[in-house]
Amino acid sequence: MSTLRYLAGPGGRVEGELTVPGDKSISHRALMLGGIAEGDTEITGFLAGEDCLATLRALQALGVRIERPEEQHVLVHGVGPDGLRPSATALDMGNAGTAMRLFMGLLAPQRFDSTLIGDESLMRRPMERVATPLRLMDANIKTHDGKPPVVIGASSGLRAIDYTLPVASAQVKSAILLAGLQSFGRTHVTEPAPARDHTERMLGAFGVELLRDGPSIAIEGGQTLRGTHVRVPADFSSAAFFIVAGCLAAENGLLLRNIGVNPTRTGLLEMLLQMGADIRVHPHGGINRNDDQNAEPMADIEVRKSRLRGIKVAELLVPLSIDEFPVFFIAAACAEGETLVRGALELRVKESDRLAAMAQGLTTLGIENHLLADGLWIRGADGFGGGTIDSHGDHRIAMAFAIAGLKARGPIEILDVANVATSFPGFLETARTAGLQIDAA
Ligand code: S3P
Predict the structure, then answer these.
(1) How far is the CA of 209 from the centre of ligand 1 (A)?
(2) pTM score, two decimals?
(3) Domains 5-22+233-440 and 24-219 share a fold
(4) Atom of ligand 1 nearest to the CA of 172
(5) Residues with beta carbon inside 6 Å of ligand 1?
């Protein structure tokens, strides 16, 4: 637990133009695919946050040479499909669930042993969801009561599987695709509902052929990746905090530039529009164009202070906005009437139990809510009271309550916020530039 805390609000308004750091999911994947590609990969717009740096260091420990001429500019010298080497020590994924789960898929087919560990929060998170399908492929993987450390034994070759995911999880889907790429035969993965498709798009950009058929994806093992240039858009999940801030307090409008708007990520826009938000999306026509199926689409997003009304969230939108619920609940708390989210059990196994953490924080700030087994019910109110919030070391809980400060009647103190640096380095500065009254202590 860190001693770093924020003091946010009360009140304020936001305006002007800003952008946010690079996409976390895409930065992890660019490093990993670049590492096992033939030739060099250049990554621009890389997220220099703690999570992606854990992936970068793990790849270096596995023998990949990586240069970083600038913070957000990375050159990965790919070692090719058989070029990874055993790490002398356990690979430490820090707070990054994506790193751990994708590395399980990447390392399961290797001819050497690996051990994956992480911080206190990651060591509590479920890993069997990835270990189970990988074992069906003949991988030798052990977890500790379903959790890390994850011990991967040397493989003498994996075989393709046909697997239907029990939950809509991009991390599990991606781990299977990465293992399938290095297996004998054609692996099929079927999703129960669409989840983010960055792995599929990026494999395509590295020259891998994937066959998509409705909810199923097929990948033939043994294909070689060719190094490429990955342009990482600004992270929609980081922009989300300012999209909601804009709905609450941008009298003159707030413009967010160069944001990734992959449709498997933008469920929050749909939910806020249904609530009556004044949001306009201006798609880009240049690089990362929307008409190249492997490219990650980008847009500028314009948002204005809006009168929000509570909604019942459609369950299909849950995987498309999975990381945005902490800040969505802040919007719901400021809306007229009731908001209901169900079918969001996955929120209980994120960096913290996000349903419980948000319910607890909202109650502290005087917002009526009911914590449900798989969701949350909230009655909107005219602003928040002040109080002290435990972020449970979860970056997105911390940032969500910082945004709540805009509508608070007293200061909000947010504890244990150091992990904001895992996904959003510079959050405090960006928030102040936008107009939030926020300090760290
Ligand atoms: C991610 C997938 C999601 C998301 C996480 C990043 C990814 O997790 O919550 O922050 O990059 O694949 P799940 O696959 O567990 O839903």
Answers:
(1) 23
(2) 0.98
(3) yes
(4) 14
(5) 25, 98, 169-171, 174, 196, 322-323, 346
pLDDT tens, residue by residue, 269-310: 999 999 999 999 999 875 555 557 788 999 999 999 999 999
CATH 3.30.190.20 fits 24-219, yes or no: no
> Which of 121, 129, 171 has the most ligand 1 atoms within 8 A of CB, as the residue to mutate?
171
Q: Over the range 329-364, which residues count as b (16 or more CB within 10 Å of their CB) and which as e?
A: bbbbbbbeebbebbbbebbeebbbbbbebbbbbbeb
Antiparallel, parallel or unpaired: β 147-153 and 114-117: antiparallel
Rounded CA-CA distance 373/355 in Å is 9
Domain segments of the chain as ranges: 5-22+233-440, 24-219
Whether 323 is catalytic is yes
Residue segments in the chain with a per-residue pLDDT below the cut of 50: none
5-22+233-440 falls under which CATH superfamily?
Enolpyruvate transferase domain (3.65.10.10)
Place of tokens 């941008």: 250
Structure tokens at 175: 């781990």
Nearest CA to ligand 1 atom 10: 323
Q: Contact 93/103 with Cβ under 8 angstroms?
A: yes
